[in-house]
Prior knowledge:
The chain contains 5 helices and 7 strands, in the order E-H-H-H-E-E-E-H-E-H-E-E. By secondary structure, it is α+β, with helices and mostly antiparallel strands. The protein has one domain: Gcn5-related N-acetyltransferase (GNAT) (Aminopeptidase), CATH 3.40.630. Strands 1-2-3-4-5-7-6 form a 7-stranded mixed β-sheet, with helices on both faces. A hairpin with a 2-residue loop joins strand 3 and strand 4. The mean pLDDT is 91.
Amino acid sequence: xxARSERKLTFARLPDISPDEIIAHMSDARxxxxxxxxxxxxxxxAVAKFVAAKEERWRRDGLGHWAILCxxxxxxxxGFQKEGDEWDYGLVLKPEHFxxxxxxxxxxxxxAAADKRIPFVTFLLPPSRKNLGGLSxxxxxxxxxxxxxxxxxxxxxxxxx
Length: 161
């Protein structure tokens, strides 16, 4: 088996991923545990709506969420979403890839640092997330508790310039 540090990480677009694979990923209770806004059942319609919304962000903002591939296989999704004047970063991995979050996030933050539109990145994490060491290793700092779509989140910020 290849060590995690040697595994090849690439970004693709969500329409390139089988809807069934996204359904299985997003229906896993271990994934839903830290997603307070996940209040619906994932099915073909939900995936189509999700992928269309993420692709619309790419069209509108020139940036959005990627499908994340590990050695060519779907590992999850994540990327940037413009929220007002801020670029928020999110990452949702399949449980077997949870340990790759910091590596993937470092790659994404390098992308953000090279994009002059992104002077900083925000992260919204549910209070259920207790292991936040990866954020501090990236250099992110706590900003505030905030409400988003009726759920409470911990907001962090990372300057990219």
